[in-house]
Amino acid sequence: MAKQNKAQWPWHVLTGVILLVLAGSLWFAASLISYEWHWNRLPQYFAYQAEVQQRADDYGQVAALTAHGSLTEVTLRSSAAVEQLLTVDSDSLRLAVGDDVAEGDVLGVTRHWAAGPLVWGLLTTLWISLAAGGLALVIGLLTGLCRLSSNPTLRDLSTVYVELVRGTPLLVQIFIFYFFIGTVLNLSREFAGVAALALFTGAYVAEIVRAGVQSVVKGQAEAARSLGLNGLQAMRYVVLPQAFKRVLPALAGQFISLVKDTSLVSVIAITELTKSGREAITTSFSTFEIWFCVAALYLLINLPLSQIARRLERRLAQSD
To answer: For a Cys-Cys bond, which of 29, 77, 159, 234 suits 63, CB 3.0-4.6 Å?
Structure first.
């Protein structure tokens, strides 16, 4: 084992050198275009302190100010002797005891931490990916089995669906689904986006499932039938578990592609991660910084997904 490690470490060093050269090349390319980096502008797009203005409800006077650490409790007394209590941040207080206030006057603000647009875009991308991925798995499984069915109608319809979806761009399908089908059925843009992604990914999952089932030796199903299982039971308990082990890498790759394909639903005004990045660029003027962050957030989703699929693949391989 020690000899094997000794033989491998130079290659790991070479990998590190190559990565350093690539990083240096990227830095050199950025210096050639004289780009000024402003990473300090990015934190507010992940989290920021939102301000809520505290206003007077009626005409009156400031009766008392009570400090509680960084907060101040303001007591207002109206002309009808009705009191209103407000709490504001002490450094934002604009009045003193005895000052007159009018209805709607701002007395100060309260601050709290809020998620920025990139975080909200990331959450939107996550739930769209999960919803579309779950639907795509069901659609792909059923369609893949229909393509293997002895019923000509099921086989023909599933073939038409797969070839039609795989033969047209996803962007075109999103437009058709939202502007045509969504208008006719009065669907929300979120539902239309998830449905378009699920139907698109489901066609590829169907081919993966079909290939996986066909890779299992026919004798497995025949042996299951000889033990008293019907066709559905043989497929569920014998064939599909073996097929799943074989197609797991392809399925993981397809779902990783689905996460990246969610960026296309921004064309129907869904504010997912890519659209949030474009909106952040318009206010920060930090093009490269924002796009690097968006790319890193996509990696944050996809790298754990790849690791989970790899671990699951190794664990299933141990059961063989």
So the answer is: 77
CA atoms within 13 A on the CB side of 157: 10
Helix (H) or strand (E) holding 271: none
Domain final residue pick, 115, 149, 173: 115
Structural domain of 311: 117-318
Among 69, 100, 115, the domain boundary falls at 115
According to DSSP, the residues that pair with 101 across neighbouring strands are: 60
Buried b (16+ CB within 10 A) or exposed e, 196-216: bbbbbbbbbbbbbbbebbeeb
DSSP code at position 235: I
Residue 217 lies in a domain: yes
User: Rounded distance, CA 55 to CA 37, Å?
Assistant: 40
Q: Say whether both 147 and 83 belong to one domain.
A: no
CA quadruple 252, 254, 260, 263: dihedral, nearest 10: -140
Can you read off the two tokens belonging to residue 319? 């059961």
Q: Which are the contacts of 243, defined by CB distance < 8 A and separation ≥ 6?
A: 209, 212, 213, 215, 216
The whole-angstrom separation of Cα 198 and Cα 214 is 24
Please write the tens of the pLDDT for every residue from 292-317: 999 999 999 999 888 888 888 788 77
- In our burial notation (b when 16+ CB lie closer than 10 A, e otherwise), range 69-83 reads eeebebbbbbeeeee
pLDDT tens readout for residues 142-178: 999 999 888 899 999 999 999 999 999 999 999 998 9
Q: What are phi and psi of 184, to 5 degrees?
A: -65, -45
Tell me how long the chain is: 320
Same domain, 102 and 133: no
Residue 36 belongs to a domain:
no
Residue 24 lies in a domain: no
Residues 124, 201 within the same domain: yes
Q: How many domains does the chain divide into?
A: 2
